[in-house]
Amino acid sequence: MNDRLYYQDAYIQSFTSQVTKRGTEEDGTPYAVLAETAFYPTGGGQPCDHGVLGDIRVMDVEEVDGEVRHRLESPLPEDWTKVTGQIDWERRFDHMQQHAGQHILSAAFLEVAQAETVAFHLGKERVTIDVVLEELNEDLWAKVEQSANQVVLENHPIIARFVEEAELATLPLKKQPTVTQNIRVVMIPDFDYNPCGGTHPARTGEVGMIKILGWERHRGNIRLEFICGWRAMRDYTRKQATVRELARQLITSEAELVSQAERIIAEREALKQSLAEKEKLLLEVEIREQLANAVTIGNARLIQLSTADRTIQELQQLAQLMTSEAPDAVCLLATSGEKMQLVFARGQAVDVAVNQLLKETLPLIQGKGGGNPAMAQGGGQPVIAVEEVLAHARKLVETALQQKTN
Ligand SMILES: [Zn+2]
Hints:
Oligomer: single chain
Number of strands: 19
CATH class of the largest domain: Alpha Beta
Number of domains: 4
CATH architecture of the largest domain: 2-Layer Sandwich
CATH topology of the largest domain: Threonyl-tRNA Synthetase, Chain A, domain 2
Strand order of the largest sheet: 1-2-5-4-3-6
Strand content: 25-35%
Bound molecules: zinc ion
């Protein structure tokens, strides 16, 4: 472990080392092994460091059979026996903040709710822990957050070092180490003792704010998402901008935002209802008008209507209302656009089968459809004018009604 500079000092950002090995992974990626390195390899829930060796980008770092492989964008030149490494400090410090934040948050869950952490994931966007807990209510959420941030603000030292077995037995570890040699313990004295191989800042204050964002049930436990430090700061900046913009658009203050939103939603519901009532009234007026202008054929009244801006559902509704309002009505309705659609209907007092009328009309527009003697609908191609189609249907109605009277 003497080759791991990040264990001696987690703040080493650049270093110079002998190149001890060059190789190529199975997928063709070149890699280099150094006599010592500050690059942290993926492990213990913490993603690896990025950075450069010389001017060659380090894309990925992994420990394979005890050696740290720096996977590179291109191979190290053959004549480089020594190389200077520079790690991407912004990325690393972010990992240190999230990782140490996780130790503190998990310890707070133990302290406040005796709830153990069983999994940790540190992603590019999301950081999560799985906690053995039935439910996380608002009250517990607040208490845990309070306790964790208290530890941050008290600025305790975070000590990470390798310990011998004899000392290990004296430490109040929260969980047992998964390795049997080179056991490294991360300690926040009097608060948390954890076997851990990751990188951490020197004091809890550097973790910055610890903020729980939300939670969900996951395999019988609670999986909760949280962020620390600069991530929390960026998140706050974004949320503040969102709140400010919403308040501007809704013409209110931040404090009134929720009640203003509730008011607007209630207003919208009332408007929707009022609009629906007005539309119904309008439809009733239209029906009365149509019936007044209807052509009388025998004992029936014929309503013929073609429109471009109505759906077939609207035509069906119109036909339904008209025939129930006027049992002597026969409706021939059409809407024409890319497709031509027809709705034929008749009231109870008219002895005409509109499904039969439709069947004899649809061939004009190469259409398909069906229905019952009182109401039928179908659609086809607008190969001839909609007026011609309706005129054809009207003739059929006239013939059918004359046959009845004769
Ligand atoms: Zn750790």
